[in-house]
UniProtKB/TrEMBL annotation, chain A:
Family as reported in the entry's similarity comment: Belongs to the ABC-3 integral membrane protein family.
Keyword Transmembrane: yes
GO cellular component terms attached to this protein's record: ATP-binding cassette (ABC) transporter complex
Record's protein name: Metal ABC transporter permease
InterPro entries assigned: ABC_BtuC-like, ABC_TroCD
Disordered: annotated span: 368-394
Organism of derivation: Thermalbibacter longus
UniProtKB/TrEMBL annotation, chain B:
Transmembrane segments: 6-28, 33-52, 58-79, 91-111, 144-163, 175-199, 205-224, 231-251, 257-276
InterPro entries the UniProt entry points to: ABC_BtuC-like, ABC_TroCD
UniProt entry keywords in alphabetical sequence: Cell membrane, Membrane, Transmembrane, Transmembrane helix, Transport
Record family assignment: Belongs to the ABC-3 integral membrane protein family.
Taxonomic placement: Bacteria, Pseudomonadati, Thermomicrobiota, Thermomicrobia, Thermomicrobiales
Protein name: Metal ABC transporter permease
Keyword Cell membrane attributed: yes
Keyword Transmembrane helix (UniProt): yes
First-listed, main subcellular location of the protein, grouped into a coarse class: membrane
UniProtKB/TrEMBL annotation, chain C:
MF terms (GO), sorted A to Z: ATP binding; ATP hydrolysis activity
Keyword Lipoprotein among UniProt keywords: no
Name of the protein this chain belongs to: Metal ABC transporter ATP-binding protein
Organism: Thermalbibacter longus
Alphabetical keyword list: ATP-binding, Nucleotide-binding, Transport
Stated family: Belongs to the ABC transporter superfamily.
One Pfam family here: ABC_tran
InterPro entries attached to this UniProt entry: AAA+_ATPase, ABC_transporter-like_ATP-bd, ABC_transporter-like_CS, Metal_Ion_Import_ABC, P-loop_NTPase
PANTHER family noted in UniProt: IRON TRANSPORT SYSTEM ATP-BINDING PROTEIN HI_0361-RELATED, METAL TRANSPORT SYSTEM ATP-BINDING PROTEIN TM_0124-RELATED
Amino acid sequence: MALALPDLALDYTLRTVALGAMLLGLSSGVVGTYAVLRRESLLGDAMSHAALPGIALAFLLTRSKETAVLLAGAVAAGWLGSLLVNAITRTTRVKLDSALGLILSVFFGFGLVLLTFIQKQPDASQAGLDRFLFGQAASLLRRDVIVMGAGVVAVLLAVLLLWKEFKLLVFDPDFARVLGLRVRLLEVILTSMIVLAIVVGLQTVGVVLMSAMVVAPAAAARQWTDRLGLMVLLSALFGVVAGMTGALVSSLTPRLPTGPTIVLVVSGLVLVSLLFAPNRGLVWNWARERARRGQVRAEGMLRQLAALAEHHGSLEHGHPSAVLRASGWSADQVVQVLHDLESAGYVRQVSADRWAITATGMARVRPATEGDDLSDGAGHPAASRPEGTGEGQS
Amino acid sequence: MTAPQIEIQLIAAIVAAACALPGAFLVLRRMALISDAISHAMLLGIVVGFFLTEDLNSPLLILGATLTGLLTALLVELLNRTGLVREDAAIGLVFPALFSIGVILISRYAGSVHLDTDVVLLGELAFAPFDRVVVAGWDIGPKGLYAGGIILLINAALVALFYKELKLATFDPGLAAALGFSPAVIHYGLMGVTSLTAVGAFDSVGAILTVALFIAPAAAAYLLTDDLARMLLLSAGLGVAAALSGYWLAFLLDASIAGSMATMAGVIFGLAWCFAPERGLLAGQRRRVRQRWEFAQRMLAIHLLNHERQPGAEPELQVEHLWQELRWDREFATRVVSLAEGRGLVTRQNGRLELTDRGRLLAQESLLA
Amino acid sequence: MGDRQNRTVSAVEVQDLTVAYREQPALWDVDLSVPPGVLLAIVGPNGAGKTTLLKAILGLLRPVAGQVLIFGQPVEQQRRRISYVPQRGSVDWDFPTSVLDVVMMGTYGELGWIRRPGRRERERALAALDQVGMRELSDRQISQLSGGQQQRVFLARALVQDADIYLMDEPFQGVDALTERAIVTLLQELRAQGKTVIAVHHDLQTVPEYFDWVMLLNVRRIACGPVSEVFNEQNLRLTYGGRFAMAAFAREVEEAAPAIVTPDRSRSGGGNHGAGAA
């Protein structure tokens, strides 16, 4: 696999692939933010599977392999799929999960029937339709990229223009209606955006895995920020990075399908985000939990020393660390905590392994007024950032 | 019908019935999409197992793939429990990753082993009759038939044995837990059965379309009955119907058998959706029309009850003003009044409506309900 | 119709309203007329249709029959004059946004399509946060708020709308004592400005203290009017039915002990006087 940079800059195919993958990541990242926040992550799954029969029917009806025609079929079928999901949950007692699974698998099955049917037609060379199953970045043409670009522009325009409307729609739709916003219309636009974003990615990622591109970048982005604006930007960035990396690697490596490669890259991004994102990440949480437990432990130790001091009526009397071991901590742990408390000025070492609480320590354990609240404030860098970047002053 | 045709239909029917049993519980427990995740992710287990055993029917492969399915359910649960992503997103994150690894493995090493993406994804029922079980020189039938049959038997036996536990845990998880039936055991038991069934089915219908056999017949049955036992039987029956009609659709179009089965499963759900005797669209429409008149008469009675003793409520009681007061269509109001008169709920005196005792009783009853 | 227009225009006028979910009626032929400048509590047992009535007034539900008038006109034409404080649990508090941002949502209606909130809207939002004592938390992510603080954010969002009628769904539910006092003060300020407040309320004990008017509702209207006239044992018994532990309750109402504030645990859970019997 020769991945030399000059090649990348010059090679027409690679440029097209990179551009296409970028567009795919951009649109699905942006739109995915709204889908994930609305808890409709899997609607994308149903819509992308539903697109398959649309592509096949578009081909059967027009005998054209033109991307724009096939994708138009995909848009129509994706829309029909989401309408049916909606109708099933509204008019029957079948729940959303079943409705999604039903539409997803039945549409996909019907798509396969059509695909195999086309395959056996004597005149039709259907080669090229199955690229929509798992995606084939290398098959992207400049014309395709232009079609994708149009879809992306539409999605971005909608998000920019209807920024506050979508925010309110996702956060509190009832309130939006009370304010007089056209909630139905907004929902239709949002659904159209999801369909568009999926269709933009179909050729590169394929119908089976496209839903991952809607869910994963947004789920990763959510871990890094508490602001919608930043989340949309980050999600788009993750989508672009995953799309480009995956598409380039797969088109430079033989027998490496594009869709799965992109999905693996984006899954890696999610994993890193879940583990290491500041504030929310699991590692971060674990460290915080550890620190908190240490603090509780130190607090308990200090209380014990305070009780001993009160018992003896003096702050001068030192106590051996062995006395303090009551709560099942190891000797080392106790000494460690005592040293920590000493460096904070709450405890002093009277002599070798003799410890006493200081006046500061007493004040901390037995405050005259209500204790200071340590759990509050401090340390939400995102929260102290001046408002306005996300909101856009007009 | 030739012998292979009969065998294919038998296998299809058995697999469909085997899927429908756990499917009914998945639909009722709102876990339909976990079956989607399991049947996708299981691909990884099958591929790895196949590389190790080179035999799609090896017990080791089936065990490995079943464990992968369970692992998927576990990962979704763990991810959900971190609180960092919601359940829908958790499902959407886990299975594409596992599935992708499986697809990449197949594509990379497809040359060296006899396994290709299409077979795993779409299954190849048409070839099933060629894979025979031969005992002591006797050909006793296709392997698929035995694999499917064993899984169907296991599923049926488990459902029969744990019927009461499953029923309780599905409709009242709190009570089930209080009575000592661990929800976790039941959850992962069901996940295990789902995985095993999906492994058995993928050979015939492929990884994606097993979802159709899990969900569509069960969802259709859910619209046709309120009784769990009947729903289980109906699910299995409708699954078999989808399998057989799907086979013949594929035969007619010379197209994918698995795809046709999924399509027919969808058609069957569509039929149930429209024509189910009580819950179907048509029945609902008819009932709404009937109830509209009944409802309107009650409303009229309640309206009169509310205003009959109110001073200054004279316009509320005038036949002429009624349609304006209630924001009804004029003809509609006239029709409702004459229906109510006919039933002896109201009487008309100098253009003023009055409740009869019967009407008053109806109004009071309606308000208490 | 004619005679109705001669009276002083009601802030909220509900006429013969029937609302049904599918085929199950939630409100039967309800009338309600609320004069401007009144604090009205809607009380009734669980499932009495309190939230339904509120949503129907807001135009969120389409009635089977009857109509709602806001200052004599349909809701759709009076959107600017009503504001809404939904139940706290109705939204996802993990949504990635800040306190100030949520409060500014109150200005989206008048901004219209596409235009973004600017400095003016920001100032108004901050002023509203001041009113509920939350200004210093304006940059906070909303998931870091306590129940009481969440309620105050919703109130601030409603205040920003600068409406004439405020519809609140259980504003006191699950809030701390401090917030409860703050809300009561706010309600009184609103009344002093001549605003109308209609609130679904669960705690019968505090009705006489917090509100001037009360509507007793149980699928149909049992009674409605000034608290002193209609908030009595007979009407309460009609509303809550035989399950109502009347004698003990009546005493409490008369004493109307303001000091005891029992935060409700949940909407459906009992814990409220009388209503819990269901």
